[in-house]
Known about the structure:
Layout: H1 2-25, H2 27-32, H3 36-61, H4 68-84, H5 89-100, H6 104-128, H7 133-153, H8 162-175, H9 178-205, H10 212-225, H11 236-247, H12 252-285, H13 289-297
Helix pairs in contact: 1-12, 3-4, 3-6, 3-9, 4-5, 4-12, 6-7, 6-8, 6-9, 6-10, 9-10, 10-11, 11-12
Amino acid sequence: MNVRRALSVLVACFFAYFAYRAVRDGSFHVLAHIRLSAFISAAVIIFIGNNVLGGLRWWALQGYRGSAGSAVRSLTESIFFATVLPAGSVGGDIYRGASTHAAAPVVADRVVGAAVTTGCAAVALPIFLHAPGWLAWAAAASVVLGAYLAWRVLPRIRVGSSRVRRGLAIFGDVVSRRERVGPAIILTVGYLFCNTLFLLSLATAVGTHLVFVAGIVGSPLVLAAGAIPNVHGLSFVQLTIAAVLYDAGASAAQATAAGAAHLLITYVFALIGGSLLLERRLGRSHPPLAAHGSEASR
Length: 298
């Protein structure tokens, strides 16, 4: 809890500085004149990547139980909890696990997503920092070696607790099935590509330009920043977006406005998820009219 409190204070301090720079550099002026078509395109692209492809990945790791549409809907609903609750993204994961009565696919979804994005981010970070090229190759080799060792070593770990052992067995069964993990990895790569297009559209929306290669390098960095717990939608994702655009030549006002635009999109998604959740709850509390009619006829 102390770690989360420290992260909350750190994020709050960052966004206080974020607001200060927005006023000083004229970011509100940039937001007021944002290119609406590019902003809507960015929102649609990230919705496809985060909600649709993310929901399909979770559905695959569940063993294709239920329908793909219900998985996408549940993931969209979980964004409401991830944004509103102080627990951040953990709150959304808890909701997903409770809605399907299965925690292992949720953990596997996080692990597969984090492994792919962190691996790509490890390769992209030296490029982003303009480090020597051999560092990127060394990072790539380290990622491949680490993934192989994890694949071989983790299933052989023995623990004393029966509950932990049972949980590891269930998790190992999920990630050992190629028909589940293979599509999940492919969908994560598709999510990275959607995030690249999102960065390009967001840059256009705030009046700057981002080359495709810079978007490819920045995309895994942005997604890796999303692994850090957020506080009511405020996270290091906005900071990373601003840093990527600023490094690509955007002004401080444009970079700050891009981070604020991402935050706005996050709140819109949370509103959509909350609306779907409310509709689901109301549907359960009020049976269909046909049911009332049949009861009356009895």
